[in-house]
Write a structure and sequence with these properties.
mainly alpha; Four Helix Bundle (Hemerythrin (Met), subunit A); 72% helix; 0% strand; binds heme C
């Protein structure tokens, strides 16, 4: 008679203790990756947005070429960002996440706000490329309000 290896038995025991089948455990690992990735993306967007704003609105430090690069990088960070919210992340398991469960009760509204941010970043690229500083400043303020609006509805403080 052949016995399962200690390792296999150990893993099976651990999963049984957690109340998980291997398939569920790997879904959990994928979800954990998505949660970490979206937080990293938003941290990067935050950093880029502040740098871009500084290079547009501060006359002594104005640098539209640098601002354009930041705007482009922000757009890149939004590629595939909404997909990182495809599955609800349970707060009891992902304590470090500030995503509110209401995201998944109003997913189409959340997705629409995400799309709006993406479009605002693209418009910012265009306005900066056209050196339309006044319009870019107005859109930067409007975009900052979009960040806050979404956080008020869908992010824990
Ligand atoms: C469509 C909704 C939405 C928009 C628009 C949005 N955010 Fe967020 N943001 C979130 C959610 C939800 C989280 C929490 C993600 C998590 O913790 O799982 C978040 C997280 C963050 C974080 C990370 C906070 C932390 O947990 O450390 C930063 C920084 C951030 N956003 C900045 C911004 C900035 C800057 C903008 C605008 C340029 C913006 N966000 C626009 C929904 C949004």
């Amino acid at each position: 008679m052949k016995y399962p290896s200690c390792k296999t038995l150990g893993t099976a025991l651990l999963l049984a203790t957690l109340g998980l089948t291997p398939a569920v455990a790997s879904d959990q690992a994928q979800l954990a990756q998505a949660v970490e990735a979206r937080i990293e993306r938003f941290d990067e967007i935050d950093r880029l947005f502040k740098s871009m704003r500084f290079r547009v609105v501060t006359p002594r430090h104005q640098d539209l070429e640098a601002a354009y690069e930041y705007a482009q990088a922000m757009s890149q960070q939004t590629q595939g960002l909404v997909e990182l919210f495809d599955h609800p992340s349970d707060r009891s398991q992902f304590r470090f996440s500030k995503a509110r469960p209401s995201i998944w009760q109003n997913k189409s509204d959340f997705d629409a706000q995400m799309l709006q941010m993406q479009q605002q970043f693209q418009q910012l690229e265009d306005l900066i490329a056209a050196q339309d500083v006044d319009a870019a400043e107005r859109l930067i303020d409007q975009t900052a309000r979009s960040c806050r609006a979404c956080h008020n509805s869908y992010r824990f403080r």
